[in-house]
Amino acid sequence: MGKVVTSASMSLDGFVAHDDNDPGRLFDWYEAGDVEVRTASEPAAFHLTETSADYWRSFIGELGCLVVGRLLFDITDGWSGVHPLGVPFVVLTHEAPTDWAHAHTGNAHFVTDGIESAVAKARELAGDKTVAVAAGTVAGQALAAGLVDDVAIDLVPVVLGTGHAYFAEVDAAAVKLGDPTVIVPSTRVTHMVFPVER
């Protein structure tokens, strides 16, 4: 069984998006280099540095499924049924949509009975691969429930001041992280991975 990892681009002051959900300059590193990295959402592509591209390919190569919240699903319209990372995704929501135009793709799975069920469904879909949990409320819930193995941060040298925190609604006293197992400095970003201590 693969790991459960939270992952996001984060500002120096701990935010993953502005209050209006715009990531702003947090995604600048996706266009900081000359290495084209294709996504499953044709014709989209990133242009990463060689260092970031190597890190990205390693992460994506292990990825089997995503867990996201309803807010992210609604903002992106569920990526029109095809996530850019090319994996199925589980949406944790109070109520599944009944008229979503892209339901026919079969890539979105809706779970309404809590984070434990959402991660369990994602593990089933991922098989032996990694489950990635989106930052925000869902990541906070997964961490609080003891479901997260690693916290991955793409630390971007910007300060947002306010916005959506990497971990929302989590008891800070319950968060215990070990020393980083990965530190990869690159242009406009430093990639880091911290193990969760239980």
Please outline the helices and strands.
Blueprint: E1 4-11, E2 15-17, E3 35-38, E4 45-48, H1 50-62, E5 63-69, H2 70-76, E6 89-92, E7 108-111, H3 115-126, E8 130-134, H4 137-144, E9 150-156, E10 164-165, E11 182-186, E12 189-195
Parallel strand pairs: 1-8, 1-9, 5-6, 5-8, 6-7
Antiparallel strand pairs: 2-10, 3-4, 9-12, 11-12
Global geometry: globular
User: Which structural class fits the helix and strand makeup?
Assistant: alpha/beta
Radius of gyration: 16 Å
Alpha plus pi helix count: 4
N- to C-terminal distance: 18 Å
- Strands ordered across the widest β-sheet: 7-6-5-8-1-9-12-11
Estimate the strand proportion.
25-35%
Oligomer: single chain
The percentage helix is: 10-25%
Number of strands: 12
- Give the low-pLDDT segments: none
Order of helices and strands: EEEEHEHEEHEHEEEE
Q: Name the average pLDDT.
A: 94
Characterize the main sheet. 8 strands, mixed
Summarize the structure.
Helices cover 20% and strands 30% of the residues. With 198 residues, the protein is an alpha/beta fold.
Describe the structure.
By secondary structure, the chain is of the alpha/beta class. It is built from four helices and twelve strands. It has helices spanning 50-62, 70-76, 115-126, 137-144; strands at residues 4-11, 15-17, 35-38, 45-48, 63-69, 89-92, 108-111, 130-134, 150-156, 164-165, 182-186, 189-195. The longest helix is centred in the N-terminal third of the chain and has 13 residues, at 50-62. It is globular.
